[in-house]
Amino acid sequence: MHIKGNEMPNAIVIGAGPAGLASAAALQDQGFAVDLLERAATVGDSWRRHYDCLRLHTTRGRSGLPGLAFPDDVGRYPSRQAVVDYLDAYAKTHDLAPRFGVTVTAIARAENGWRVTHTAGEDRADVVVVATGLNGTPKLPDWPGTFDGPIVHSSDYRNPDAYVGQKVLVVGFGNSGGDIALDLAEAGVEITLSQRGPVNILPKELFGVPITSFGLLSKLLGYKAADVLTAPILRMAVGRPEDYGLQSTGKGPGARVIEDGRIPLIDVGTLGAIMAGQITVKPGIEMLDSATVRFADGTDTPFDAIIAATGYNVDLRPLLGESPALDANGRPKVSGAGTPEPGLYFCSFRASPNGQLFATGQEALAIAAEAARAFSLATAR
Question: Cβ contacts of residue 184 below 8 Å, gap of 6+?
Fold first, then answer.
């Protein structure tokens, strides 16, 4: 595509979280006029609603988006609030002015571009970037039976205050489940952690080096060779999943990410709490029965509440219909690069083992550069 005369091509970016902010800044830098749409009332809305104890697993030096580093005073691993403050600063630094309270309802091909329909009307764009991310709709399993107490998704958990003196089941041993179980256990809450499938576990640091920094080995050697090389060291550092009553995947952490799209558990102390008896580990849930949960091992245990750290569903078909850019489940086939639909891009829909914010920034830069080439714009300044 080529722009006639001095006309500036325009882009609509959907979502003002890290992916949307980075994409908008990168596109602006490439010469696009950018309209940033956000259904919430602030940038980084999901980060403002994450649980209080959340900290990044990547160091601040590997967590910034393009064009702005985290300040030194946030510590080695930025907290949830530090990320919120950073996203506010990022929007201000790059002169981004999102339109808040605007929910996109449809994205469709139009003559020479795209038509984006939303609650404030309709706009045309040469380029559309969907940057709503992996945390789409909270996923709650449909367990057989009924439960008397509350069942809440991990996205609604903030801190242990509401659970003091209760017996709580945390379902799912990903990074959110591990963080929340430890947060509750440290507050004296009686915690059981249920994990149905196999897991990979990694220490937060190895020999004083953040575990996410070892991703360089995968780039140098390939993920399979890196998994083989690091396996004995990881066994010495954290043992095997079976040591904690969990199942092993039979794959290394790199293979688990690349082949299955699953991020390993990066331990922040949960494994130690399991070994100390502060957290009980059980297999998957077989059924619910009033105040009791029956597990796959045949045991029954009463609980006051269940917190489901069971992930999210991402399905963009309500926005795009049966687009060739989406797979059969409505997830983008490609993230951070061109799609089968010229001018349509997706940012941060691929899990990264080396830090989601860093990967998000790299995808945003790649999208902006590719869009600029398509419109024959100058290279980024």
Answer: 160, 163, 168, 170, 191
Q: What are the two backbone dihedrals, phi and then psi, of residue 103, each rounded to the nearest 5 degrees? A: -105, 125
Q: Which two tokens stand for residue 284?
A: 């998957």
Helix and strand element counts for the chain (H, E): 10, 23
Contacts of 333-338 with C-beta under 8 Å, sequence gap 24+, read 335/363, 336/362, 336/363, 336/364, 336/366, 336/367, 337/363, 337/366, 337/367, 337/370, 338/370
83 secondary structure, DSSP code = H
Residue 311: phi and psi, rounded to 5, are 85, -165
Task: Assess contact for 6 and 73: CB atoms under 8 A.
Answer: no
pLDDT digits (tens, 9 = 90+) for 309-341: 999 999 999 999 999 999 999 999 999 999 999
Task: Record the tokens describing residue 172, joined without a space.
Answer: 């799912």
Query: CB of 241 within 8 A of CB of 247?
Result: yes
Q: Which residues pair with 338 in a beta bridge?
A: none
Amino acid at position 373, single letter: R
201 backbone dihedrals φ, ψ, rounded to 5°: -125, 140
Model confidence pLDDT, tens digit, residues 111-158: 889 999 999 999 999 999 999 988 888 999 999 999 999 999 999 999
DSSP state of 377: P
What's the token pair of residue 237? 């550092």
